[in-house]
Amino acid sequence: MAERAIRVGLLGLGTVGGGVARLLLEKRAELADRLGAPLELARAVDLRAEPAAELELPEGVYAPDPAAVIDDPDIDIVVELIGGLEPARSLVLAALEAGKAVATANKALLAHHGREIFAAARRRGVGVAFEASVGGGIPLIRSLREGLAANRVEQVLGILNGTCNYILTRMTAEGAAFAQVLAEAQAAGYAEADPSFDVDGVDTAHKLAIVAALVTGRQPEVDDIPVEGIRDIDSLDIQLAGEFGYKVKLLALLRNHGERVEARVHPALVPEGHVLSSVDGVFNALHLTGDWVGDVLLYGLGAGRRPTASAVVGDVLELARDLRHGAGGRVPPLGVARGGGGRLELMPLAEARCRYYCRFTAKDQPGVLAAISRILADHAISIQAVIQKGRREGADVPIVMLTHTAREAEMRGALEQIDRLPVISRPTVLLRRA
Amino acid sequence: MAERAIRVGLLGLGTVGGGVARLLLEKRAELADRLGAPLELARAVDLRAEPAAELELPEGVYAPDPAAVIDDPDIDIVVELIGGLEPARSLVLAALEAGKAVATANKALLAHHGREIFAAARRRGVGVAFEASVGGGIPLIRSLREGLAANRVEQVLGILNGTCNYILTRMTAEGAAFAQVLAEAQAAGYAEADPSFDVDGVDTAHKLAIVAALVTGRQPEVDDIPVEGIRDIDSLDIQLAGEFGYKVKLLALLRNHGERVEARVHPALVPEGHVLSSVDGVFNALHLTGDWVGDVLLYGLGAGRRPTASAVVGDVLELARDLRHGAGGRVPPLGVARGGGGRLELMPLAEARCRYYCRFTAKDQPGVLAAISRILADHAISIQAVIQKGRREGADVPIVMLTHTAREAEMRGALEQIDRLPVISRPTVLLRRA
Predict the structure, then answer these.
(1) How far apart are the first and last CA of chain A?
(2) Least CA distance to A321: which residue of chain B?
(3) Quick check: A274 contacting B, CB < 8 Å?
């Protein structure tokens, strides 16, 4: 049978784009068998000609100008792998307006302009797929959007940045300092020369914005998501948390209370019995709790050329199936055909209720614990466990405390007072428990 | 907009069927928003009228005869939750022949009659979905069939039976004997009165047959899959494996060598560093390795009314989307539109290459290890580690040995000779390592 080929136009031949081109070419026969029609890499665009030459693209596939994809009526699916906000945004919107399906791995783009892009896709009735934007090769977007669609997702805990997880895993295993592990990670290629996008939690927040949209059908402003990174994590706290039976992980956290939704990014203590605590190294994972399915964990490599290309080509195959069956836009961008799509207002962090880990640094003298406890009690915060490490008369000692659930605003208020006590020598370290 | 409803006919109102009915009724509004059209529980069939009464189905929905679903041209999707081989097989085939899409959770049916059912679905161009047949609520069928479709899956390791995993987890935690834990699991409702389907590995083999079909596009005869259950697992071996850093799990294992495919079910030693080793209690998980995606783990509840209903309704929603867009049969049953579908021949177990754990029971006298080692060497089996537990002159002592990779036939041959040695007091315990 000589089915019409589905024609793919690729924008960007960097690490992931090159992988996608390679995969589409190498597995041409298998993908055609899966689809029931050829899936053709018709055009690949990059400003530079070198990547195309290295990839040994077939004659006529390479073009330097994105217009060669966007303006070509024979291109069915546009794969955006340029990254960043512009020109990616304009190109994606132009592709959708031209009635083309779009697959993208661009989390920054979707976090900042998702509402606009998803609205355009719905209006034009074309498909937009973005599995590779969160969790690399892990099929988590598809699971949230389709497989688990019967559920109200009540909680999400995600380890979504491989660089941070690698650094924290090594700090835990070796008792090493953040700066040292970061430097070694940079030398080994596991961290960027400018690591702030990763280690300050920005990348994780982008991904959480996308996950929050899939869970609620509405999308938050990415700048509304409270974010704390791992730069200030002291290996002493990793060690002390370990003594209480916790591992420290950078989490993307979402709690869906229905009317109100909490979403935030920060380091958190994960109990060692929790399956998420064994997600180590560069691996990513999404742990979610649905009202019918219960707990689900999806785990795999969250970045890298090959896992990310796997996710992109999975998307391309799905979009191609839809087109082949005349069902473009079959799955709405956020899995909801009616309603949804608006802005998700997040609960202010001050109103969140968490369980805390506090490390006070105090002079070793009688009455310290009484003074701290009194202030906590005044703020309605109750203590679950305390350990005081070492005893050195007159010197500074760490006092570690786990609290029961308390309001963030109360906790902050209490710490402000505690840190003004004369017996407290240094600002208190505050971490949340998952 | 007054879109035509997609009409669902449900066969079977047992544990899962009742859950599906409940879910479709409770979430009618949310599901309609997702689909963009009403998703209507039009008919629910069970021989007994009581379940329907308990569920308070709307007037006219209950029927005692499956013909009320199969023969009704207004039913779009048939959900088969009767279980067992007949009449489930005939009803599913009749539904497909009538051009209806089918969702089923029936792993026994698909393991035994998958080729026939999938061929019928392809011939009629209708959809068949079976997420709930393996791994309950975990979206693993969808991931294998679509999300990871760009990959050649090279290996699968699955913990796919919650009863077995619960029993092994408790045996590990408590050092308890199989029979005792089984009895308690039965009392607590975690194991059936007749547990053989679970503990002898039959259920896991059914699920592996389905996974193997998705991985290779061809389906094995379920009776060709070598199966060993957990009935003979001695808690002593769990303890000794622990000393070497392994946990004992009942695994569904598939290795895809391309031309040749290994698939089998047996207890296996999983290293404690492997993410699968922390899958405990009634949880299930599928760990797979793809040529592009690398390692992926999908984890969740593998059984139970609510997780299974979550998977079934996810399937129903997907089938409904396809129908609404005129794209019935969009995804071929095994994800392959051209070719595939035949019988998968499995590599005989004798030719498999494994790493082994052996526990010899020998008289504590000089020369025992030399005798064992000589026989292993004669069969080209090399030893990685040995421990001899305790020393009791003249008494029986366990000698535990880990081997490097060896052919199963050689290992069996060696054990036959070893167990005939006069110094060997009891048949040797043989377990494989994952």
Answers:
(1) 55
(2) B330
(3) no
What is A6-140+305-324's CATH topology?
Rossmann fold (3.40.50)
The structure tokens 């081989």 sit at B85
Give mean pLDDT, residues A297-326: 97
Structural domain spans, chain A: 6-140+305-324, 145-301, 349-433
- Sheet of B6-11: strands edge to edge? B62-63, B39-45, B6-11, B77-80, B101-104, B128-129
What is the SS3 assignment for B201? coil
Kindly state the average pLDDT of the residues B232-250: 96
Nearest to A314 among B146, B309, B330 (CB): B146
Q: What is the pTM of this model?
A: 0.96
Encode pLDDT of A82-135 as tens digits: 999 999 999 999 999 999 999 999 999 999 999 999 999 999 999 999 999 999
CB < 8 Å to B27, chain A: 150
Tokens of B216: 């290779």
Strand B396-403 versus strand B353-363 pairing type: antiparallel
Average pLDDT in the B303-329 region? 96
| H helix runs in B217-271, sequence order | 235-243
Beta bridge partners of A44: A10, A62
- For A365: left if phi > 0, alpha if psi spans -120 to 50, otherwise beta; the answer is beta
Q: Which of A219-223, A329-333, B247-251, B361-365 has the lowest mean pLDDT?
A: B361-365
Nearest beta carbon to residue A147 from set B301, B314, B338: B314
Bridge partners for B429 per DSSP: B359
The confidence score (pLDDT) of residue A188 equals 87
Backbone angles phi, psi at B150, to 5 degrees: -75, -10
What rounded mean pLDDT belongs to chain B? 95
β-partners of residue A295 are A289
A290 contacts on B by Cβ (under 8 Å): 137, 310
Contact call for B337 and A36, based on CB within 8 A: yes
Size of interface A-B (CB pairs under 8 A): 205
Cβ-Cβ contacts under 8 Å, B300 against chain A: 293-297
Sheet with A39-45, strands from edge to edge, namely A62-63, A39-45, A6-11, A77-80, A101-104, A128-129
Please answer yes or no on whether B326 and A325 come within 8 Å at the CB atom.
yes
C-beta of residue A365 within 8 angstroms of C-beta of residue A243: no
Q: Which residue has the tokens 């039009």?
A: B42
Closest to B294 in 3D by CA, of A110, A19, A253: A19
Residues of chain B neighbouring A30 (CB-CB closer than 8 A): 152
* Distance of residue B411 Cα from the nearest chain A Cα, in angstroms: 34
Pick the catalytic residue: B207, B249, B363, B389? Answer: B207
Mean pLDDT of A405-416: 97
pLDDT of residue A2: 58
Instruction: Determine whether the interchain pair A33/B296 forms a contact, defined as Cβ–Cβ distance below 8 Å.
Output: no
Q: Return the exposure string of A81-99: e unless at least 16 CB atoms fall within 10 Å of the residue's CB, then b.
A: bbbeeeebbebbbbbbebe
Q: Give the CATH fold of the B349-433 domain.
A: Alpha-Beta Plaits (3.30.70)
Provide the chain B residues 14-33 that lie in CB contact (below 8 A) with chain A: 19, 23, 27, 30-33
Nearest to A278 among B35, B152, B275 (CB): B275
Rg (CA), chain B: 24
Chain A segment 150-169 residues within 8 A of B by beta carbon are 150-152
Topology of domain A145-301, CATH: Dihydrodipicolinate Reductase; domain 2 (3.30.360)
- Looking at the domain B148-301, which fold is it? Dihydrodipicolinate Reductase; domain 2 (3.30.360)
Spell out which residues of chain B touch residue A36, defining contact as CB-CB under 8 Å: 332, 337-338
A 316-355 residues with CB < 8 A to B: 317-318, 321-322, 325-327, 330-332, 335-340
| pLDDT exceeds 80 at position B393 | no
